[in-house]
Amino acid sequence: xxxxxxxxxxxxxxxxxxxxxxxxxxxxxxxxxxxxxxxxxxxxxxxxxxxxxxxxxxxxxxxxxxxxxxxxxxxxxxxxxxxxxxxxxxxxxxxxxxxxxxxxxxxxxxxxxxxxxxxxxxxxxxxxxxxxxxxxxxxxxxxxxxxxxxxxxxxxxxxxxx
Length: 162
Fold this sequence. Notes:
By secondary structure, the protein is an all-alpha fold. About 80% of the residues lie in helices and about 0% in strands. Helix 1 crosses helix 4, helix 5 packs across helix 8 (about 145-160) and helix 7 runs antiparallel to helix 8. The N and C termini lie far apart (about 50 Å).
Protein backbone atom coordinates (compact mmCIF):
# COMPACT_ATOMS: atom_id res chain seq x y z
CA UNK A 1 0.00 0.00 0.00
CA UNK A 2 1.39 3.38 -1.07
CA UNK A 3 1.49 6.22 1.48
CA UNK A 4 -0.33 9.44 0.65
CA UNK A 5 1.87 12.47 0.20
CA UNK A 6 1.00 15.36 2.48
CA UNK A 7 -0.47 18.48 0.93
CA UNK A 8 2.60 20.46 2.01
CA UNK A 9 5.03 18.07 0.33
CA UNK A 10 2.91 18.05 -2.85
CA UNK A 11 2.96 21.87 -2.89
CA UNK A 12 6.74 21.92 -2.37
CA UNK A 13 7.17 19.51 -5.24
CA UNK A 14 4.90 21.60 -7.49
CA UNK A 15 6.84 24.77 -6.65
CA UNK A 16 10.13 22.99 -7.31
CA UNK A 17 8.85 21.88 -10.73
CA UNK A 18 7.64 25.41 -11.46
CA UNK A 19 11.09 26.77 -10.49
CA UNK A 20 12.66 24.23 -12.82
CA UNK A 21 10.27 25.44 -15.53
CA UNK A 22 11.57 28.98 -14.99
CA UNK A 23 15.11 27.72 -15.52
CA UNK A 24 13.97 26.01 -18.74
CA UNK A 25 12.44 29.28 -19.98
CA UNK A 26 15.76 31.04 -19.32
CA UNK A 27 17.81 28.46 -21.28
CA UNK A 28 19.14 29.19 -24.73
CA UNK A 29 17.44 27.50 -27.68
CA UNK A 30 20.52 25.33 -28.21
CA UNK A 31 20.55 24.09 -24.60
CA UNK A 32 16.80 23.54 -24.70
CA UNK A 33 17.18 21.37 -27.80
CA UNK A 34 19.64 19.15 -25.89
CA UNK A 35 16.83 18.16 -23.54
CA UNK A 36 14.30 15.61 -24.71
CA UNK A 37 11.16 17.58 -23.84
CA UNK A 38 7.63 16.85 -25.04
CA UNK A 39 6.34 19.18 -27.74
CA UNK A 40 3.56 20.63 -25.56
CA UNK A 41 6.13 21.64 -22.91
CA UNK A 42 8.38 23.22 -25.55
CA UNK A 43 5.39 25.18 -26.88
CA UNK A 44 4.57 26.39 -23.36
CA UNK A 45 8.19 27.48 -22.84
CA UNK A 46 8.20 29.39 -26.14
CA UNK A 47 4.92 31.05 -25.16
CA UNK A 48 6.34 32.08 -21.77
CA UNK A 49 9.27 33.77 -23.53
CA UNK A 50 6.86 35.75 -25.68
CA UNK A 51 4.74 37.08 -22.79
CA UNK A 52 5.47 40.42 -21.15
CA UNK A 53 2.75 40.99 -18.54
CA UNK A 54 3.50 39.74 -15.04
CA UNK A 55 0.15 38.03 -14.49
CA UNK A 56 0.32 36.25 -17.84
CA UNK A 57 3.88 35.12 -17.19
CA UNK A 58 2.90 33.83 -13.73
CA UNK A 59 -0.03 31.85 -15.14
CA UNK A 60 2.16 30.44 -17.92
CA UNK A 61 4.79 29.38 -15.37
CA UNK A 62 2.07 27.60 -13.39
CA UNK A 63 1.00 25.85 -16.58
CA UNK A 64 4.60 24.83 -17.27
CA UNK A 65 4.79 23.47 -13.72
CA UNK A 66 1.64 21.46 -14.37
CA UNK A 67 3.12 20.02 -17.57
CA UNK A 68 6.33 19.21 -15.69
CA UNK A 69 4.33 17.06 -13.25
CA UNK A 70 3.31 14.83 -16.16
CA UNK A 71 6.89 13.94 -17.14
CA UNK A 72 9.87 12.40 -15.37
CA UNK A 73 11.83 15.51 -14.39
CA UNK A 74 14.85 13.73 -12.86
CA UNK A 75 16.82 13.69 -16.11
CA UNK A 76 16.10 17.38 -16.69
CA UNK A 77 17.08 18.20 -13.09
CA UNK A 78 20.39 16.34 -13.52
CA UNK A 79 21.19 18.12 -16.79
CA UNK A 80 20.37 21.55 -15.30
CA UNK A 81 22.56 20.92 -12.26
CA UNK A 82 25.40 19.74 -14.51
CA UNK A 83 25.16 22.93 -16.59
CA UNK A 84 24.97 25.01 -13.42
CA UNK A 85 28.11 23.34 -12.04
CA UNK A 86 29.94 23.97 -15.32
CA UNK A 87 28.85 27.59 -15.23
CA UNK A 88 30.14 28.01 -11.67
CA UNK A 89 33.41 26.32 -12.61
CA UNK A 90 33.84 28.66 -15.58
CA UNK A 91 33.11 31.68 -13.39
CA UNK A 92 35.65 30.54 -10.80
CA UNK A 93 38.30 30.10 -13.50
CA UNK A 94 37.51 33.53 -14.92
CA UNK A 95 37.86 35.17 -11.49
CA UNK A 96 41.17 33.39 -10.89
CA UNK A 97 42.47 34.65 -14.23
CA UNK A 98 41.31 38.19 -13.48
CA UNK A 99 43.09 38.15 -10.11
CA UNK A 100 46.33 36.92 -11.70
CA UNK A 101 46.10 39.51 -14.48
CA UNK A 102 45.55 42.35 -12.01
CA UNK A 103 48.33 41.18 -9.69
CA UNK A 104 50.80 40.65 -12.52
CA UNK A 105 50.16 44.14 -13.85
CA UNK A 106 50.31 45.86 -10.47
CA UNK A 107 52.71 43.89 -8.24
CA UNK A 108 56.41 43.30 -8.93
CA UNK A 109 56.67 40.05 -6.91
CA UNK A 110 53.56 38.52 -8.53
CA UNK A 111 55.54 37.34 -11.55
CA UNK A 112 57.86 35.26 -9.33
CA UNK A 113 54.87 33.74 -7.56
CA UNK A 114 53.19 33.01 -10.89
CA UNK A 115 56.39 31.30 -12.13
CA UNK A 116 56.49 29.12 -9.00
CA UNK A 117 52.80 28.25 -9.30
CA UNK A 118 52.97 27.51 -13.03
CA UNK A 119 56.51 26.28 -13.80
CA UNK A 120 55.68 25.56 -17.46
CA UNK A 121 54.83 29.21 -18.14
CA UNK A 122 56.94 31.20 -20.58
CA UNK A 123 57.85 33.95 -18.13
CA UNK A 124 59.79 35.95 -20.71
CA UNK A 125 56.71 36.17 -22.93
CA UNK A 126 54.54 37.13 -19.94
CA UNK A 127 57.06 39.81 -18.92
CA UNK A 128 57.06 41.23 -22.46
CA UNK A 129 53.25 41.36 -22.51
CA UNK A 130 53.23 43.16 -19.14
CA UNK A 131 55.76 45.72 -20.41
CA UNK A 132 53.74 46.27 -23.57
CA UNK A 133 50.54 46.81 -21.60
CA UNK A 134 52.28 49.21 -19.20
CA UNK A 135 53.80 51.16 -22.13
CA UNK A 136 50.36 51.48 -23.72
CA UNK A 137 48.91 52.68 -20.41
CA UNK A 138 51.62 55.34 -19.97
CA UNK A 139 51.04 56.60 -23.50
CA UNK A 140 47.25 56.69 -22.85
CA UNK A 141 46.74 54.22 -25.67
CA UNK A 142 44.21 51.40 -25.54
CA UNK A 143 46.05 48.31 -24.30
CA UNK A 144 46.29 46.18 -27.44
CA UNK A 145 47.92 43.30 -25.62
CA UNK A 146 45.38 43.15 -22.77
CA UNK A 147 43.26 40.40 -24.35
CA UNK A 148 46.31 38.51 -25.56
CA UNK A 149 47.67 38.65 -22.03
CA UNK A 150 44.41 37.24 -20.63
CA UNK A 151 44.36 34.43 -23.25
CA UNK A 152 47.97 33.59 -22.46
CA UNK A 153 47.19 33.38 -18.74
CA UNK A 154 44.14 31.22 -19.47
CA UNK A 155 46.19 28.78 -21.53
CA UNK A 156 48.89 28.56 -18.85
CA UNK A 157 46.42 28.06 -16.00
CA UNK A 158 44.46 25.41 -17.94
CA UNK A 159 47.62 23.51 -18.87
CA UNK A 160 48.72 23.70 -15.23
CA UNK A 161 45.48 22.01 -14.17
CA UNK A 162 46.00 18.98 -16.41
